[in-house]
Write the structure tokens for this entry.
Amino acid sequence: MPDVVVSPATTQEVVAVVKTCSKMQVPMIPYGGATSIEGHLLAPLGGCSIDFSRMNAVKRLSKEDHDVTVQPGLGYLELNEMLKEHGMWFPLDPGPGASLGGMCSCSCSGSTAVRYGTMKDNVLSMTVVLADGQEVKTSSRAKKSSAGYDLTRLFVGSEGTLGIITEVTLKIHKIPAYSNSVRVSFDSIDAAAKTVQDTLAAGIQIGRAELLDDTMVQVLNKANNTRHREATTLLFELSGESPGSVADAQRAVLALAKKRGGGKPHVATNPEECRELWRQRKEALWSLMGLYPELECMTTDVCVPVSRLSDLIGQSKRELDASRLPAPIVAHAGDGNFHALIMFDRTNPADVAEADRLSSFMVHKALEMEGTCTGEHGVGVGKIKYLPEEHGDGAMHTMRVIKRGLDPGGLMNPGKVLAHRRDPQTGRLVLCA
Ligand SMILES: Cc1cc2nc3c(=O)[nH]c(=O)nc-3n(C[C@H](O)[C@H](O)[C@H](O)COP(=O)(O)OP(=O)(O)OC[C@H]3O[C@@H](n4cnc5c(N)ncnc54)[C@H](O)[C@@H]3O)c2cc1C
């Protein structure tokens, strides 16, 4: 728990909080929608939690330029409610309840990244308050710029460890005029993953390509009282500006699925049915937790080049099925990214060790395949141990140089991304080597 919580309403108030914390050597932990899952919001060294719920305004909207400037506490769901009346949306979809500041900080993405990219591709500029209280505008509103170091992308994904975001300018997109959702099941996870690979290789434009393993379909059937075939399943969204373009893409995807042994597809064209399908997918984690109320969930987040997904997901599935812990899989298959949701009893050391073993198995396999330990959730506390193996000495040294340069007192969300400890002699926070 932090020692104190503050709720600023303006950038000036954030500056005042930061200056006070820096002077008093108090760690600062920005707090957005609180949907992050790697212990990002913990205060292992105490400190001040900075709650952004009062900074939730839309500052400006440009339909002509397709961009919007918002305060960081605004939720993406609320932003989309507002944009809907203009026929626009911000397509990234992490956990329901996430704020745009938290989403920038975690470099999140979600089911639509296969078409729209991640936060790194969708933030034009930010205002950030540095550890010394200085306010920095990272870039202009221009769609591209070669003017100097890319500060925007330095802060996107920095998890509150380099500065505090007080304003964000985002790209927004037109809501596609037509969209269908397709559900097709397979006898093997390999065939499903390869179908997604084939779809991307064929250049078919897809809005989403999500994979559920048989165990996850069972969970969703129980939670939503549905009776879908309990086998590995792909969910596609196909969207475009004419019914013909959507129908063409749908035909092409279904032909590829059939070649890989896909079963009889179900196509949803009714917007209500499509929304319901994607709601069930988005709430998969909560459906699972509802079935095991006494257990905790360790969510893994490995990501590999798409050509390696079938190999990694196949090896992981065999390991998970052999374990006594329930661990269904959901994948943003179009990005080579998947989550095993490992359920365990945290009061049972054998369960904790087994969940750790499974997670570490997947991370090491992903790194062998030139992948990453986290595709979208971020490092927080949980993934710190994997960074040296993923990045090597040179990159780790560079990250520490950046951290020391921008936050010499180590007060910005300490103990996340890079490990910190308190020096017993001086009481100061220092970066661990
Ligand atoms: C059911 C569920 C589904 C999810 N699905 C996805 C998914 O599909 N894709 C995905 O990418 N993620 C997903 N997530 C994870 C989560 O939603 C994302 O990581 C999201 O980006 C976190 O945003 P938040 O506002 O909740 O951040 P928080 O949890 O509040 O904070 C996250 C980090 O951002 C920092 N931070 C917050 N505000 C600021 C600020 N103003 N300035 C600087 N730093 C700040 C915090 O200090 C912390 O380090 C899911 C989570 C859940 C629970």
Summary: The chain has two domains: 4-174, 176-380. Residues 304 and 371 are 4 Å apart (CA to CA).
